[in-house]
Amino acid sequence: MIEIKNLTKIYTTPHQQVLALDNVSLTVNKGEIFGIIGLSGAGKSTLIRCINMLEKPTSGTIIVDGEDMTLLSKDELRLARQKIGMIFQHFNLLSSRTVFDNVMFPLEIAKVPRKEAKKRVAELLELVGLKDKARAYPSQLSGGQKQRVGIARALANDPKILLSDEATSALDPETTRSILKLLKDINRQLNITILLITHDMNVIKQICDRVAVIDKARIVEIGDVLTIFSNP
Ligand code: ADP
Ligand code: ADP
To answer: Signal peptide location in the record (predicted)?
Structure first.
């Protein structure tokens, strides 16, 4: 579903060049939950942002669902991005919009007819367990509820892939467990491939099938979670 080959990313600032990804290759299979773990500054965020081309790779290829993202025109990229939902550590909700209208937002951008979009939003809020919060504003929600809105919004355009950037890092352990359970349900029920980045080993152990360890811009280990984190 995602095939990254020889991906290198160098950030050029006025003062220096930063090698954020050094010849990274990995494949995420359809239907799996794949975790990328590493310390702060290792390159995780850069890697996930390259997949939907929020960051432009310096070199290498990124194939998503059969399409090389690095070769697409602006219009093609807009369509390709609809296959990829994304959730964030700090949720990135619009504070002036209700829960309902936050989830509606990507459907408005995709110009989905209003009636169909409203039906879809209602279904998504049901899926994430927030039907009764539709008219609330983000400031009236707990962290876990905000992330549920983020998840519903990410699923709005019926993506094949969900990218998660430290989605549980701002949450307490119990809320983390409930969000991870929701992600696992979404993976199983909707057959959505999930790629997540985290610095938290427990996240990997709780839901990932496979894991890559990234250190100083390079992948240093990759394999089944049970093999890599088995206690000898
Ligand atoms: P992680 O997500 O693992 O914390 P990042 O991908 O954010 O790592 O960062 C990898 C490296 O790239 C770090 O050294 C970071 O300082 C640098 N970096 C990230 N974004 C930028 C940027 N926009 N400009 C310059 N350097 C950056
Ligand atoms: P309009 O189509 O003129 O924007 P709507 O009928 O969509 O008006 O509804 C107005 C507001 O009510 C919406 O912006 C949304 O916040 C809220 N809303 C609409 N449908 C629902 C629903 N099923 N559940 C909760 N809130 C809703």
So the answer is: none
